[in-house]
Write a structure and sequence with these properties.
The protein is mainly α. The protein is built from five helices and no strands. The chain is elongated, with a radius of gyration of 21 Å.
C-alpha cells in the first residue's frame, strides 16, 4: 500500500492566497508615496484631534469633542495599524473619507452655536486635507490590486468578487 505524498503547508492554496494578500497590502503601503500618505494622514488626524486647543476654540465643547474623537479615529484608521490586508486597507480609506467629510460639515451640524470663522476655516481645511489623503490611500490600494491583476494573479479576495 503506497500513499501519495502530502502537499506541503507552504503550497496549500489558502496559504498562497494569504501571502498574496499580504504582499499586495505591503506593496501599496511600502512605496515612498504610500508612506508619505500614511505619515501625512497620521499628522492630519493628530492635528484635527488637537485643533480645538491649538486654534483656541476648546470652549466650544461639542465641536472640541467631535474634533478630538474624529481626529483620533482618522489617525488610527489611516496609520495602517489595522490594514495589513487589501480589504481592510481599502475599506478603511473609504471610512476615512467619511471622517474627512464629517470634519468639514461638523461646525454646522453639532449642537450649539459653534460655526464661527475660526472653527469653519480650521475644519474645512483640515477636513479637505483628510479627505484628499484618504482618497489617495484608496487609489494606492486600488493601484496595488490592478498591478496584481495585470500580472495574472487571482484577486478573488477583493471586495465584490467571488
Amino acid at each position: 500500500m503506497t500513499t501519495s505524498p502530502r502537499p506541503s503547508m507552504e503550497t496549500h492554496p489558502d496559504i498562497v492566497e494569504m501571502r498574496l494578500r499580504h504582499e499586495m497590502a505591503e506593496r501599496a503601503t511600502s512605496t515612498p508615496k504610500g508612506q508619505a500618505i500614511e505619515t501625512m494622514a497620521l499628522l492630519t488626524g493628530l492635528y484635527l484631534a488637537a485643533s480645538p486647543w491649538i486654534t483656541g476654540f476648546n470652549a466650544l465643547s461639542t465641536l472640541a469633542v467631535s474634533n478630538l474623537l474624529t481626529g483620533i479615529a482618522y489617525a488610527v484608521l489611516m496609520s495602517g495599524g489595522f490594514g495589513r490586508a487589501y480589504e481592510r486597507t481599502h475599506s478603511m480609506a473609504w471610512a476615512s473619507c467619511a471622517l474627512g467629510v464629517w470634519a468639514i460639515i461638523s461646525p454646522w451640524v453639532v449642537a450649539g452655536h459653534v460655526n464661527i470663522t475660526r472653527t469653519i476655516v480650521n475644519n474645512v481645511i483640515t477636513g479637505a486635507v483628510a479627505l484628499l489623503l484618504a482618497l489617495a490611500a484608496s487609489a494606492a490600494a486600488r493601484a496595488a490590486e490592478s498591478s496584481q491583476a495585470g500580472r495574472g494573479v487571482p484577486t478573488s479576495y477583493a471586495p465584490g468578487r467571488g
